[in-house]
Sequence to fold (549 residues):
Amino acid sequence: MAKYIFVTGGVTSSLGKGIIAASLAKLLQSRGLKVTIQKFDPYINVDPGTLNPYEHGECYVTDDGAETDLDLGHYERFLNIPTSQANNVTTGRIYQTVINKEREGEYLGKTVQVVPHITDEIKRRMLLLGQNGDYDIVITEIGGTVGDIESLPFVEAVRQIQWELPEEDCLVVHLTLIPYLKAAQELKTKPTQHSVRMLSQEGVHPDIIVCRTEHPLTDELKRKVALFCNVKPGAVIEAMDASTIYEVPLKMLQEGLDIITLKQLHINGYAAPDLTKWRGFLSKLNSPKTKIKIGLIGKYIELQDAYKSILESFIHAGAMNQCKVQIVNVHSEFITEENVAEKFKDLDGLLVAPGFGSRGVEGKISSVKYARENNMPFFGICLGMQMAVIEYARNVIGWKDAHSTEMNTATPYPVIALMDEQKKIRKKGGTMRLGAYACEIVEGSLAHKIYGSTMISERHRHRWEFNNAYLGDFENAGLIPSGKNPEKGLVEIVELKNHPFFIGVQYHPELKSTVENPHPLFVNFVNAAKSYAEWKVGQPAEKLQKQAI
Fold:
């Protein structure tokens, strides 16, 4: 039987419950325990698949095709193990399940209520991952902030689990904020006290309090929090702001978060933490030998969480190359043929990001053209790959009106078209091509060199695809389809032979990059950008200026 840890948050949102949960999981894993993490979100959407990235950041996709919260990306990047549909549950999914059961007559004769029916379903899912013997510890992050109306059923479910399980099998970690008042030059504990009191009024008392803070907590202040929040002084953990999220596990190790957790769960005989690979990664990350600038061409750049996995993948790849990757956000809506050279003159590589809809598409196409014509390393993901195909059709093959039917249903050259299995679909939620699919790679191609294999598996999230009716035209014109799905022939990878680094992929490689296994596409792209930056140094200014023009 697994033991259960619940992570709640108070005072304000965006404190980093996901990072704290992932850091604790990493520390426990490093001591030889089998750990998984799950996220319970209080919104009524069944999943975040239909949410605008401005609303909720990126939608993270698992191998089994679940559209999930971006925190699952943190879980996978920290633990280096895949998550699944079971690791992310929303209020919408809970209510959908209960309502379906009611319609089927499972509750015949009973009045269906939040308590016990909704809370019972929440509890069932909270305990599910721990019942098959695969894990020693299941960590559950409760989304939202204590006091939110929508979080109440989840908090009530935690209260019931606390009451039902033996004391040593259940633990609650509460993440809160200790704000610093600059005028008074003081850290204030009152918000934390109120947050814990509110949680306690709902029947859940925290065992450990993790305090986000911009300034160190004194022993006296820790004792004050412990006294007024009714926990032991050793159970008050300082969580100082870190320069990178990957330092947080080591900060939590210094604070003894894993030790107090193990003691309260009555887990004995654990090994010393083995964080050799983690420390090696941080050493490389903090000691770069070179620096490059990568242009991130997207239309959601105002919210960095919209491209969270891409940004983290660059951190992993940068460390692997001992290179500081500076991301320069460029809004695709404001890129034109006239200003593209000026915008990109200081960059060492371009990544055209995923997305949906017509806004900013022409700017992405102009970006691809610039990278192709100027031998600048180019990497296109999902829509970025499709934009590379459209750009090539327009400017190399000569089909000036080539487009995707997503943006122009009347285009005479629909080089990107809706997948056949998508044409009859009307419902939007959970109906895209989702999850892991195989891709067979052509030997001798750039993709083959990068992966070192002719068969790979990558995660997808799309409705439109490369139109194979034009496959021969592109091959004759020099755009190589170097990767295809072996079952349906769907083009997964396109590349150019006579270019330093030009590759577009239909899938989302950023979803599989972790600290211990940086994705090879990002690693090789960063390396190509390093080479391009070194090449520029040796070129006369007038040559670079002429090339940019």
